Amino acid sequence: MKIETNILQYLPIVKNIQIFHWLHEDELQKMLLISSILHYEKGENIISQGEFGDSLYAVVSGTVEVSVKDKNRKDIPISKIETGEIFGESAIFLATKRTATVTCASETIVMKISRKNLIFYFKTYAHAGNKLLMLMILNLLNKLKHANEDLVLEKQSDLDLNYVDTLIQDFISESDLPSD
Fold first, then answer.
1. Per-residue pLDDT tens digits for 94-108
2. What's 7's domain CATH number?
3. Which residue, 44, 46, 61, 115, could crosslink 54 as a Cys pair with Cβ 3.0–4.6 Å?
4. In what helix (H) or strand (E) does residue 57 lie, and over which residues does it extend?
5. How many separate domains does the chain show?
6. What is the C-alpha separation between 172 and 84, in angstroms, rounded?
7. In the chain, which stretches have pLDDT less than 70?
């Protein structure tokens, strides 16, 4: 990981990140000044499952993969996060351990904003802070919606597999009958 020193050069690029799109240029510039721009190589972890988190990340460029470890400690891929999207935002609201690992799928540049700096921003720039909070909440609700849809699909496929198992059992038991 490399830390960028010329942070204001990212102003035009950061404007395209979903939650920052509605900020005025001066509000966005102030946001950049309390943030860090970090460069990661492909394969580097940005967040590791189980570590304490206190920052929100926005993908400036590149792609990251989200995964969780199953009970056998095997990585299970969950999703990809692309340029312009955010992750880790629950750490702004909850002081808990990270629930997933986020790994760079390519060379990636992220904008990192700590909870402390974001709260300062909300208090100092209330109008912009309210816009950001609303967009962060909408983003979390959207992620929850997609997670619920995935659960429904998983449950439906479980039901379908049970139905197939029943059909196979019926077929096996009928084929065991002697023919007349």
1. 888 998 999 999 999
2. 2.60.120.10
3. 115
4. strand 55-61
5. 1
6. 53
7. 147, 150-180
